[in-house]
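Hi everyone,

Forwarding the result from last night's run.
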Amino acid sequence: MSSTGIRLIWSAALVLATVGMILAPRPAAAQAQIIQNRYLRITVQDSDGRWRIERLEGDPVEGRDDGLWVTGAADFTSTKATLWVHSTGQAAGARTGIVGGGGGAIETPPTISANGQSITMSWRFPDAQPDEEGVNLLVRQRLTLRHDLVRIEYSIQNRGSQRSVGLRLAINPAADGSDAVTNPFFLPGVGLVSFQTDFRGGKVPDRWFAFFPNPDPFSWVQNLLRGLDATPPDRVAFGGYNPLLSATGPGVGPLADYDFTPNSLLSLLLPRASNGDGSVALYWLPRTLLPGQTRTYVTYLGAGQADHGQSLDLLGSVQSPLVLDLVGGRAAPGGFRVHAWANNLRETAPLLTVRALLQLPHLTQQAPLPSEPILQLAATFPQQQFENVIGDLSPAGQGSDEGLTDWLVETTGAGFGDQTFSIFYSPANGAPARVSRTVVIPHEDRTFLRNIFQMICIPYDLADDSPDAAFGLAPNEFQALRWDPTRVVNLQGATPVDIPPGEVRSVRVRRGWNQIGCPSPWPIPLDAVTLVRQSDGRNFTLDQAIRAGLVRRAIWRYDPLRALYVLAPHDTRVQPGEGLWLFATTDLFILWPPPTSPGVVHRPR
């Protein structure tokens, strides 16, 4: 990688030559089209347009995933696109066709674009045209390299009579080297998914991840469902390989290549022979397609955990740790790196003098006080600037079409929990792009006391929990719950709360109003807690406790800038240092689980 603040331009031609020298070749298809960049290789079979994705360098900041698959097999059986077409002549009211397969015919074989960045093919359905029902559809499939992602596009053109048409794309991801290990899926904002399920409408996640190994994963596959120019699916189903890719096994409906009903009791972690081997199906539900009309669906599949943003001219990618470690009471001592890439999306014109501006989060204060930075450029590199020049980028696929830069960033103690920063990319002769990324900062052994009322929780065990002793303040420096002046204070005699794997942190709740807070230095979802009724020891989830009348539905947090209480959603991530009000109708214990990320339990060191 480049040293801090220094730009680096990748040469596409050099990269291809280098990759060929350092990586062992994969088994080649008998007749196939192949394209690659520094990170990924796409192979599309000539016979049916079925495709696979494998990693070359893969995740740009993780060397251990080099050469692993993105899709799950070398024989092109780990992806399948199914066309759904309304039909009055079928008992199920519809018929299906596998894009590139039987029932239709290849109209244009897989073809590599002039710049070597895309492979396009087209397939007509049905094979015999015109059809007795007036069905005449053309499906175009286009796979395009985009940094560490592949842009997957299906366009359906109606060349016949008005028709209701849908599409399903099934994927069997491979985060490990052989697709022999199945781990849970991770959905940001939802958590781990280990059993068959589906999400519909507004519940569809922005993206999902597959990861390997478990614990401490280093290999990631991600599917971007929202963002960039992706078309959010109407439904996302998680099931086994057999029902979603082989059209066999439990849950398969009359239209076996399309219909699937998940069973929440069936584990995705079982081997394929037991209907496991977790796979995903993206559904764009049937919609009316008028004669001559074309509808396009786009999703992104690739490697790593980067966040992306784009304009018409430029793709920006950002990577950094998602969760910081807590060592000796400080988050990521010595700082952490933020990596930024810029890719030219233009096919014929260069981008000139591309700049990248790092915008870090701040804690908003009550006027007239200025905001306080939560992250800052690391003081160990005083020559760093917020804006770096990446330089000129060649047209896509031609020479140096990608450049990168980086920064070393550190925490200030002004804020913790989920914090978002952005990078603004601006070429001199093109449309700018912005990419945002959220990093989790654990609560340190210091806290920022503002000169306004605020509810706070200290996720540390204190030798003396009186305010003057805990904060090291003289009695005349604070009044009631208000401290002045505004500043960061170091906690005295403080040991961060550690919740080991398999254990919980128990907090007693009395009948009536209770102030509660996350007992861990890292955020914990509120709906992950268990409530125990003290009278009989019975356990309840939060929703069960609310339905049983053990706690009131309304849980409140205090907004210090608006000086009022606001409702906290039940699926909120309780941030470290944040206080909440909860009303209990009986005495309870709240059991807080360990803070986790996929394959990781976060513990202070």
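The chain has three domains: 31-303, 315-441, 452-459+497-601.

Cheers,
N.
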